[in-house]
Amino acid sequence: MKITYYGHSALLVETAAANVIIDPFLSGNPNSGISPAEITVDAVLLTHAHSDHLGDAVEIAIQNDCPIFAVFELAEYCKSKGAKVVHMNIGGAQERSGIRVKYTQALHSSSITEGDSWIYGGVAAGILLTVEGKTLFHAGDTALFSDLRLIGERHAIDLAALPIGDVLTMGPDDALLAARWLRADKVIPLHYNTFPDIAQDGEEFCDRLRQEGVEGFPLKAGESVEI
Fold this sequence. Notes:
Elements: E1 2-5, E2 11-14, E3 19-22, E4 43-45, H1 51-54, H2 57-64, E5 67-71, H3 72-80, E6 84-88, E7 93-96, E8 99-105, E9 111-114, E10 117-120, E11 125-131, E12 134-138, H4 147-154, E13 159-163, H5 172-182, E14 186-190, H6 202-211, E15 215-216, E16 224-226
Helix pairs in contact: 4-5
C-alpha cells in the first residue's frame, strides 16, 4: 500500500487491487501540487461535507466513472451532482473491488455551502480502509474522544492519518494521545499549515511521536510512504 499526501487531508492510496483517494481537496488547495484531472482512481472516499474535504470529489468520480463512498446525506448530495455513490454510515462496512471500507465516529460538524445556503451533510466520520491485508485509518476532522481507544483495540491499524491543526480539529497534544490509543506504529499528520489559523510544526509533532515509539511522516505534497 503506497500512500501519497496532497496537502491538507487529501491522501491517494495505491495498491495492486485498487487506487483510492480520500478527501480530494486539490484545486482549491494551495498546497496540493496536483490537479483533479491528474487523478486516476477506482473510488473516492469522503470523511465529511466541508469544502476542504469534499473538494473535487464529484469531478474526480465522474471523470473516472467510479463511486464516492460517503455518509448517507453527503452521498445523496454527490448523487444529485451526477456522481455514482456508495451510501455509508457510522459503524457500517462494505467490501467492493478488493477494498474494505468501514466508517467510524468522528467529533466534528459537516455541511455544504451553496451560495447563501447551508446544506446538512450528515455526520462527520473517520474511515478504516483495508486493502491487501493492510489497514489505513483516516480520522477525518475530529476532536479527541475516548472511543478512539476502542477503534484501536478492535482493528489492527498499520497507519493512522490524524489532524493536528488545532482550532478546527484536535491539536498536536491530543493527536499524540490519539496515536497511542489507536496503537498504530506509523502516523501521518494532516489538516495543518493550509491556512494561517491551523499553522503547526509537523516535524516537531513527528519527533514527539518517535519519542513514543511511533514512526511519524511529516509529508510534503507529493511525498509518499509505503506500508
